[in-house]
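In response to the reviewer comment on reproducibility (Comment 2.3), we provide here a single inverse folding case reported in full, input and output, so that an independent group could reproduce the run without further information from us. The structure tokens appear first.
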């Protein structure tokens, strides 16, 4: 079967303290009426990585139906591919490939924008010590001083941030509500694992953002707009607080009160949870029933502790069963993976 279409993009991973970048090749290898086969190849151009999550969105209603050599899930137009247990490590210059079958109606264009480990494509390798070259942002700048590089968070804790853009008024419901969601997740993990994580003494660090909401939504946003707002928040938090991605000192959670309707979202990868406006609103009690936000945080923390999405709705919080919180439970295999994972040492 002939190759019908292919697209290649260069995607940057997290800047943090390591050089990062990758090349992604998406190839439609075969196509028939209503269905197609595709292959994806990822080449790591930066420092070695120990786990990868690739995301893209379809623009013509395509649906992934079966995958191999990766765990691939889809929510609406957004597709997420996570490494298996045996292909998560990528050395510098190393490559990994996976494939899948899908369905289509009307058209089947190849996606042109990808994110790797939560960062939008930038077209090159990010150096280990980047020097900002863009001019100073226009508009209001908060009068409070920029926090120091390490803050006051105790090591081996879960560190939580609420980033408030310059045009968002302080509302105490948000830090209080986010803290309540984190304490609920803390209780759930103890129930499930017999041990849990420790929250920082300041459970929610309120951060005065450097920009207004529109800047976070639109800046550096040339590809998948689903990730723009949380990616901009993520980069600002890492820069201002001297946090890496991942960072063995803390597991970090960031929420921002900014969101583009039907576009902005969030997710997680080992060591980080990044969420946008609807999650912040939900935690504050102004957007839907609380069990959805409790279950959602348990789910994203599962990713931060190293778990992939489940491949089906299986009763565990790593599937759509998190909407049924608290009537959802980790499997024994998931419990073992959390405890043996990169952040298992944070649990006591």
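Designed residues, in position order:
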């Amino acid at each position: 079967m002939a190759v019908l279409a292919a697209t290649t993009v260069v995607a940057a991973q997290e800047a943090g303290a390591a050089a990062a970048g990758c090349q992604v090749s998406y190839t439609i290898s075969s196509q028939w009426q209503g269905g197609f086969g595709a292959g994806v190849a990822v080449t790591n151009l930066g420092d070695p990585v120990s786990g990868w999550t690739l995301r893209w969105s379809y623009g013509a209603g395509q649906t992934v139906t079966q995958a191999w050599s990766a765990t691939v899930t889809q929510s609406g137009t957004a597709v997420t591919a996570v490494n298996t247990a045996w292909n998560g490590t990528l050395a510098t210059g190393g490559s990994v490939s996976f494939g899948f079958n899908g369905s289509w109606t009307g058209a089947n264009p190849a996606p042109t924008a990808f994110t790797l480990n939560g960062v939008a494509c930038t077209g090159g390798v990010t150096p280990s010590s980047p020097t900002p070259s863009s001019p100073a942002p226009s508009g209001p700048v908060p009068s409070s001083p920029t926090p120091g590089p390490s803050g006051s968070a105790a090591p081996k804790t879960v560190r939580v941030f609420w980033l408030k853009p310059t045009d968002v008024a302080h509302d105490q419901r948000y830090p209080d509500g986010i803290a309540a969601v984190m304490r609920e997740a803390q209780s759930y993990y103890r129930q499930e694992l017999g041990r849990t994580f420790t929250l920082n003494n300041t459970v929610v660090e309120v951060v005065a953002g450097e920009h207004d909401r529109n800047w976070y939504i639109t800046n550096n946003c040339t590809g998948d707009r689903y990730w723009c707002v949380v990616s901009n928040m993520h980069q600002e938090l890492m820069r201002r607080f001297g946090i890496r991605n991942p960072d063995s000192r803390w597991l970090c959670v960031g929420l921002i009160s900014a969101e583009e309707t039907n576009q902005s979202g969030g997710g997680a990868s080992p060591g980080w949870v990044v969420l946008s406006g609807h999650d912040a609103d939900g935690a504050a009690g102004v957007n839907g029933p609380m069990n959805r936000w409790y279950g959602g945080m348990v789910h994203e923390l599962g990713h931060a502790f190293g778990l992939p999405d489940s491949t089906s709705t299986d009763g565990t919080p790593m599937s759509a069963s998190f909407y049924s919180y608290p009537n959802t439970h980790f499997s024994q295999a998931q419990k073992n993976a959390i405890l043996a994972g990169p952040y298992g040492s944070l649990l006591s």
